[in-house]
Amino acid sequence: MRTRSSLEYTIPRRRNCRRSRHRQEAIPLNLDPIPMADDRPMAEQLQAPTGGFESAIVVPIINAQNFELKSSLINLVQNRIFRGGNDEEPHAHIRHFESITNNQRYPDVPNTTIKLLLFPFSLDGVAKTWLEKEPPNSILTWDDLVSKFINFFFPPSKTTNLRNEITNFRQIAQESFSEAWERFKELLRKCPHHGFSLMHQLDTFYNSLSYNDQDSLNSAAGGNFLYKSPNEGLQIIENKAKVRCSRNAVMRVSTNAPPPSNSSSSFEFQQMAAALEDKMTLTFRNELNEMKNMMKVCAYSRSDKSG
């Protein structure tokens, strides 16, 4: 006989439709406004934009009345244009530019403002293109302009190459002491941020010299050159280079060597030659007059004796 408990079975529960409906994720509605059609004529829509072409250099407001850059000053800046070539030195350009503009004074106008106004006139070619490609209103101060200019035209790779040239400097065969020293200083000048101390510079230059020039430098130092302090060593080298340079100049003039055709120092050599010639002529004339006077004295003395 079946009991009630044996007839029991599990009735599956019905889903609560109301709850399932509430659990569904809400679908976001796109409420963005529908763009309106541009009813302007196509010729007007195709015109190039006129905004967004501001200069990279932000020039501060000038409160001075009747201020203007003189054309003579602009021409002076343009006498030495920087074009961004590999053989050009950005540091030298900045030094030359500041030598012109540092002394410019205008009432109620800061000197840095004058530099910001004038600097674009000193650029051309690749350098001018660089400034035009800088983001608008991105250069606010003169220091900022110098930093961006130097870093662009003097990348870290150039610094590394010049530092290696300084470290591996060697005197060339048939190169005089003064010529080697000038060439070494030129490398230091090209890379003013080389980071080498004066002691390191002098040690590098001393070890780059030939044995004869090392011995000559030791003699000028009164012993071992490296026993001197860096400042004393620098003074010894400078004095020695000046003496050698002056001797070479006199020898070239005395042997009638032709002056360099494409050198700014040719006029100086001509002046030196003319001065030496005048001095020699004057000395010869004085000696000739002395000889004539001596001959006259001798003639008078003879005539007195014979009388």
From TrEMBL:
<dbReference type="InterPro" id="IPR005162">
    <property type="entry name" value="Retrotrans_gag_dom"/>
</dbReference>
<keyword id="KW-0808">Transferase</keyword>
<dbReference type="Pfam" id="PF03732">
    <property type="entry name" value="Retrotrans_gag"/>
</dbReference>
<protein>
    <submittedName>
        <fullName>Reverse transcriptase domain-containing protein</fullName>
    </submittedName>
</protein>
<keyword id="KW-0695">RNA-directed DNA polymerase</keyword>
<dbReference type="GO" id="GO:0003964">
    <property type="term" value="F:RNA-directed DNA polymerase activity"/>
</dbReference>
<feature type="domain" description="Retrotransposon gag">
    <location>
        <begin position="118"/>
        <end position="209"/>
    </location>
</feature>
<keyword id="KW-0548">Nucleotidyltransferase</keyword>
